[in-house]
């Protein structure tokens, strides 16, 4: 999934501007799987509107929210290190888009997308481990969960582990 996105558009999705067609769809490998479906699979049937992580006002109340989105950040970090001809967004209209939210003190915070692209600036350190099919394996069908598994004489680990 991560390797299939040769440019930021395929990994994160396409730009969406005022006047574009409504409901353009996920537009990326990451949004299609695993990000979007896991948000929707966490619906809360005890709530009157069946809220889930796809509902912005309700999302962070779900215990899996922070684990899930930390993994999305980890996948972005992996994508950035794959090398090759991968290209990132350079469009200032996208990079300078403001995201508004309230912090834990109920104060309005304004952040630009460009300020969120480097996980180190967000206070995250993602450990790099040797990677490749001969030394690693993934748990689950499409969600990478850190784990170790003994395979006879050889120990296999995930490619990247976040702290």
Structure description:
- This protein has 163 residues and is an alpha+beta fold.
- The protein has one domain (8-131).
- 25% of the residues lie in helices and 15% in strands.
- The chain has helices at 8-12, 29-41, 64-81, 92-95, and strands spanning 98-102, 108-112, 126-128, 148-151, 154-157, 160-162.
- Strand 1 and strand 2 (108-112) form a beta hairpin.
- Keywords: Copper, Metal-binding, Oxidoreductase.
- InterPro entries: Di-copper_centre_dom_sf (IPR008922), Polyphenol_oxidase_cen (IPR022739), Tyrosinase/Hemocyanin (IPR050316), Tyrosinase_Cu-bd (IPR002227).
- This is Tyrosinase copper-binding domain-containing protein.
List keywords for this structure.
163 residues, alpha+beta, two-stranded antiparallel sheet, 4 helices, 6 strands, copper, Tyrosinase/Hemocyanin
């Amino acid at each position: 999934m991560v390797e299939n996105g040769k440019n930021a558009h395929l990994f994160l999705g396409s730009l969406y501007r005022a006047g574009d067609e409504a409901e353009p769809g996920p537009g990326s490998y990451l949004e299609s799987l695993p990000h979007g479906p896991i948000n929707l699979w966490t619906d809360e049937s005890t709530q009157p509107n069946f809220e889930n992580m796809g509902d912005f006002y309700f999302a962070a109340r779900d215990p899996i929210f922070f684990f899930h989105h930390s993994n999305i950040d980890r996948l972005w970090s992996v994508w950035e290190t794959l090398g090759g001809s991968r290209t990132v967004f350079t469009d200032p209209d996208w990079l300078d888009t403001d995201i508004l939210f309230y912090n834990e003190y109920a104060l309005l915070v304004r952040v630009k997308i460009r300020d969120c692209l480097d996980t180190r600036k967000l206070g995250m350190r993602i450990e790099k481990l040797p990677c490749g099919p001969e030394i690693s394996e993934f748990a689950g069908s499409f969600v990478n969960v850190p784990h170790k598994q003994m395979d006879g004489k050889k120990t296999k680990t995930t490619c990247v582990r976040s702290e």
